Amino acid sequence: MSDPAVDAVVVGGGHHGLVAAAVLADAGWDVCLLEATDHLGGAVRSAELHPGFVTDLFSAFYPLSRASPVLRSLDLERHGLRWSEAPAVLAHPLGEDGSEAALLCRDREDTAARLESQHPGDGGAWLDLCRRWDVLQEPFLRTLFTTFPPVRGPARLLRRIGTAEALRLARFLLLPAKRMGEELFGGEGARLLLAGNAVHADIPTTSPVSGAYGWLLAMLGQHHGFPVPAGGSSGLAAALARRAEAAGARLLTGERVERITVSGGRVRAVHTAAGTTVRVRRAVVADVAAPTLYRDLLPADAVPARVHRDLDRFAWDTPVVKLDWALDRPIPWRAPEVGLAGTVHVGQGENGLVRWSADIESRRLPRSPFLLVGQMTTADPTRSPAGTESAWAYTHLPRGIDDADSADELARRAEDVLERFAPGFGATVRRRTVQRPSDLQDADPNLVHGTINGGTAQLFQQLVFRPVPGLGRPETPIAGLYLGSSSAHPGGGVHGACGWFAARSALRAHGPAGLLHRAARTAAIELLQRSGRDDDRVSG
Q1: Where are the beta strands (DSSP E) in 210-317?
Q2: Given this model, what pLDDT does residue 331 score?
Q3: Is 14 helix (H, G, I), strand (E, B) or coil?
Q4: Which residues pair with 431 in a beta bridge?
Q5: Burial tier of 158 (Cβ tally within 10 Å: 0-12, 13-18, 19+)
């Protein structure tokens, strides 16, 4: 290509970028997507670790994908996506050696019966929690998958439950996971089904809102499962790519965007490291981390000084270390029922999770890390030969620590944890690979420092504060430029909402209400710039 012009450029071919490309192309726009690597899908990708053993290199289980109205609307099954599931959703070995386990099942009655056998009363309490989800699920998910500020979801919820109950719900949703578990359940098993899910994000179990996150994932797991794409996570990426191409989008790999041209306050063109320039008639959707967009791709003088200062306080989530194994047989758990689950939370009980989070936040390498383990052949028999297991585990380094030596030591400690809960695990390993933070970022530039959520999921950087205060929607200070990555609301997870919101915002700006939309946006940006000038006068 030599200086072509298109209606929209999507920068980045992660799953959000692919969703944005499909939505814009569906509306009849001429769309070009530019992906830096040789692979589409970003952190949705699988590969053979060992001949015959398929592993997911990044994300692996997809409850949010199956629940997402965004991805459901794209009808990806028509484009080749097939789901597979393990017999049980997840397991959490209990005690010091894991001779017993809490088990989350697709059937809530089965989950409740196991919890009741472990602590009388907890089965009924679990079913009460499920009934609360039945009432709140639709408005809760509508709120989650709506641009901020959401209106219809909370309004519908308020009509459904009333003002007095809304106050109790607000308190419930603000509870830390540890406190929520203590208020609801007498036994550790049920409490850990909440707490273990809560730490899928980088939120300590003693922090506000961690309980809501754990409750959300537990309920989604029971309702939708923790499904995996049959044959590997690349199947999901491929279906998204086929869907976007079917709508007319052009998807180009090996095209790393180096800069975005802005003039007159509007985005004008995108330039790649290979020398390609694509002129833009309407919009650019950036499926890249917020600091990358504002600090690396845009001219410094195009971004308000206030945004630059706010980005100085942008917080990443905690770096990840991931181990991938080709095993010659299933993991020999002390509790046999753990072998039924695709996802396993292992290494810490409810108090241990508090200590582990304290290590993470105080920059100490955890002596006994908490692990998320994926038993991929259990979830999808096509992942490895019969009788074997393709497995992985990941854990977190302390915040701000991402060097190779620390990663290798944490990987060693992780395998010690597995040996404690599954004696003889080491003898099952045919091949082992460690993905350090630098390996993750090299494979997907959006995984900065080996982080996986596009920025912390803690409350101070969510909702109107994501990615920074004042930029809680896809619109940016530059006309025609939209942030469509997990750095935007609602954040991490494979749900497609960030790309969807960005694309829909671009379409609205050029629709019948576009003039009013652009006027409101201009007023907001002027307020942001004026705030920056006022700050300069105060600091001066």
Answers
A1: 228-229, 250-252, 257-263, 266-272, 277-286
A2: 98
A3: strand
A4: 326
A5: middle
- The residues, ordered by sequence, that sit 6+ positions from 84 with a Cβ below 8 Å of its Cβ are 227, 228, 229, 230, 379, 380, 381, 382
DSSP state of 386: T
Closest CA to 227 of 350, 76, 336: 76
Q: Show the low-confidence residues of the chain (pLDDT under 70).
A: 1-3, 148-157, 159-161, 164, 512-540
SS3 letters across 66-129: HHCHHHHHCCHHHHCCCEECCCEEEEEEECCCCCEEEEECCCHHHHHHHHHHHCCCHHHHHHHH
Residue with tokens 């460690």, as numbered in its chain? 434
The pLDDT assigned to 527 comes to 55
Beta-sheet strands, E only, within 336-377: 341-346, 371-375
Nearest-angstrom CA–CA distance, 71 and 190: 30
Any residues with CB less than 8 A from the CB of 123 and at least 6 apart, and which? 112, 113, 114, 115, 116, 117
pLDDT tens-digit series, residues 1-10: 456 899 999 9
User: 346, 484, 328, 481: which is closest to 421 by C-alpha?
Assistant: 346
Cα separation, 314 vs 465, in Å, equals 10
For residues 485 and 453, the answer to whether their CB atoms sit within 8 Å is no
